[in-house]
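Researcher: Structure prediction, please.
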Amino acid sequence: MTHDRGYVSDSINNRTGHNLASVENEDGLRLPDNISLTDGLTEDEAVAIALWNNARFQADLTGLGFSRADLIEAGMLSNPVFSIFLPAGPKQMEATLFTPIESLLQRPYRLSVAKLSAERVAENLVQSGLNLVRDVMITYTNLTFSQALVNIAKEETELNDEILTIVQARLQAGEISGLEETAFQLEAARKQRTLVGYTRDATILDAELKIFLGLEQEENTLKLVPTQFDINRNFNFEDLLTVAYAARPDIRAAEIAIEEAGKRLGWERSKIFKFTAIVDYNERGRSGSEFGPGAMFELPIFNWNNGKITRSKAQFEQAVREYVAIKQDIAFKVREAYTNYLSAQEALKVLSSDILPSAITVADKAGKRYSVGEIAYQDFLEFKRQLLNSRLIEAESVAELHRASAQLRHSLGFKQDMLKTKESEFAELNNEL
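Model: Predicted structure follows.
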């Protein structure tokens, strides 16, 4: 198997459903087929665009070229050395050909190390691609949440303006004091400042997502299409951990690093013996021109390549310990993501089944009571503000679940299809925001 760009593309595609741009499409901004920014951008489309255009990831992919060069170099043999003594006076012409046999004997070791190194680099690049997918998903979620906050803050600002107008009228009528009116003004100013902050955050996140997608030249604000998933799905931690150990590219890269270090140790040991074949030619021997074979080898008396062998042993031990560390880190990441997912899932369930319906019911009842004159308009607006606060909590809970899902999928190497997001599944929930 060739661990090249195609391998990295296929591996990422098997996990995310998206491949990399072909080599001829590398330069310039290119959008995958059937993706347009004019009809809105889904999370899935954002991931596809990022894998094609993200500058940092494209720079990382150039590492495949170094691996390919190392593999070519490993397969090459040392050139023979030819020496000649020209005839001068009584000196006859003499020529010698030296062929380093150790280069041929060490070639299998070099090729094994280079192939494993190329495989390790490819697996690490797959992991880099999955890291990019996670970052895009989280940034997409943060921008969606931030835009929802801006919309809610605008509604709150409009409500506060209405309430402040009523308060000022009541002040003129002598129903309230100037101190009470000042309190309402301060609240309105605070909400206005909150709106400014939310707008700033949304602008920054929009720019950040554009950088991830390679769309930094895009002037228009990205129009995002809400994505959701079933919040009632349950998972078993042990099953998830098994999936992670089997699917994570970084743990596969750590396994390859151990094998690579072992091969390198064998290679360094083979360097103890250096052998060169010799063919000698003399112009005038006893029987005329003479050819004769010979050999030259280094006697391993003082130097047994101890330094490099010791270094290779240390690298092997380091690779083994690194594998253990990565495995432990994966177990923690899966546990952390799993716990955060369950927490966010439970919080959204409670909100969707209890808090938000209650807030909607109370606001509806307040509207009916106001329509028959049972409560004042200002009181009705207060109930509407409470509903907006509930929607603010809802938006935060939805975003938290999205982030937890992205982290959980990433911790599993994006091999758990049950966690894939779906467009329009909870469209009504997002439209309310």
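Model: The longest strand covers residues 275-285.
Researcher: Thanks, that helps.
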